[in-house]
Amino acid sequence: MKGIKLRTSIFVITVFVLGITAGCWQNGEKTVKQKPTGGKELLSVDLKKDQTLKYKFVSSRDVNVDWGQSKNNTGQGGQSSEVLEMVVSYVPVKVNPYGLSTIRATFESSTVRRSPDKGHSVDAAEYFSGKSFTFKVSPSGKIEDYSELETLIHQAGEKAFRPAKDNVRIKEPDMIEDVFATQWFLWDSISSIEKAADGVKTGQSWKSQLALPTPLLLRKTRDVTYTLSEIKQGEKGRLAVIQSTYSSGNTAPANWPSPYTGSFQISGTFGFLGMMCKGFNVSNIQGQGQELFNIDLGRTEQYKQEYQTELNGASPGLMGVNPKITIKQTLTMGLLEN
User: Fold this and answer.
1) What does the alpha-carbon distance between residue 66 and residue 72 come to, in Å, rounded to a whole number?
2) Would you say 20 and 302 are in contact if contact means Cβ atoms under 8 Å apart?
3) Which helix (H) or strand (E) holds 153?
4) Measured distance CA(134)–CA(155) in Å, rounded
5) Which of 65, 136, 184, 281 is the most exposed place for a label (fewest CB within 10 A)?
């Protein structure tokens, strides 16, 4: 009898401890979060089946081209801007609190505008409007299956080309990379935390890499350092304030998809610059951002990323001209009321 009582007591204690560690679950949904020890907070994505979260994304940039000085050049530059606005809804269709959950994302709208407007065809990034894809995500926010998003990116890339003429393919300007920069890196700030199950304390920093969308085909990255600066009370729960700083990164990882295949020419100013200078090098990236992550509800409320990228021609071009390009970029995301 003593052995039975002892085993029963151990079983009860074990179940109690597991309940505290995992939190309370009702119908597959977490209702209580376990708070790590040592003043740390657990930053994790909490999903509720069939509950829609809708966000507005905006990616905007101002571009300045300085043609440089030469005896045949006045040094005058040119300015342009482009803006992508998207509304995307996310619906968990299968929730697994201990493993991978499946989310369906739908682009409710996707529009692009440019200044000056040179009468280009519809931007290929607008192809995403009305399209959906599913992906799998872990409780830490790490996306494990990008396959359907990759397919959409490749399909959009095909829309960026003019009808082929004399076997020459010409690509129009597009903001597909900006779509990639927002959707591929959902929850990057928390999914990149090392030992996420241990929690994060105020003042703690960690590193990751983010995309660097530009009008040129650079496929470069920006290194990011995240810091949990403070935790404050919001209207719908405690908010983790995550600050970020950006600097120049290395070549994009090989697993990042490219929207385009085959050989082609690029139309417009940036195609001409790329040919004249045999490409551009990133000389400097500087910027910062802030994200508000709702700890109690397990979701991002909003973020804003601002940075400046400076590019130099890889080599002097015709007549010794070596243009410099400065890009001021802003990326925002905000939760919309359903």
Assistant:
1) 14
2) no
3) helix 147-158
4) 16
5) 281
Predicted confidence at residue 273, as pLDDT, reads 67
Residue among 266, 285, 262 at smallest CA distance from 276 = 266
> Among 316, 330, 307, 325, which Cα is nearest to 270's?
325
Residue with tokens 């009008």: 215
Alpha carbon of 31 to those of 24, 48, 231: distances in Å? Answer: 5, 10, 20
Is the CB of residue 179 less than 8 Å from the CB of residue 110?
Answer: yes
Residue with tokens 């890196």, as numbered in its chain: 185
DSSP 147-200: HHHHHHHHHHHHTTBPPPBTTB-EEPP--HHHHHHHHTTTTHHHHT-TTGGG-B
For residue 34, the 8-state DSSP code is P
Q: Which two tokens stand for residue 322?
A: 């070596």
How many CB atoms are closer than 10 A to CB 280?
22
Q: How many CB atoms neighbour CB 6 within 10 A?
A: 10
- Each residue of 251-272: pLDDT tens digit? 778 889 999 998 888 887 776 6
User: What pLDDT is attached to residue 34?
Assistant: 59
Residue 16 CA to residue 42 CA, distance in Å, equals 20
For the record, the structure tokens of 269 come out as: 């100013």
Q: How many residues does the chain have?
A: 338
72-to-54, 76, 186, 270 alpha-carbon distances in Å: 53, 12, 47, 20
Token digits for 318? 């015709």
Strand 29-32 with 53-66, pairing: unpaired
pLDDT digits (tens, 9 = 90+) for 188-229: 999 999 999 999 999 999 999 999 999 988 889 999 999 999
pLDDT < 70: residue spans in the chain: 1-35, 37, 68-77, 120, 271-278, 314-321, 338
pLDDT score of 121? 80
CA distances from 23 to 36, 99, 141, 242, 317 (A): 12, 15, 17, 24, 62
Match 């920006």 to its residue by tokens: 222
Amino acid present at 282: V
Residue type, position 7, single letter:
R
Q: Let me know: does 100 contact 66? Beta carbons within 8 Å.
A: no
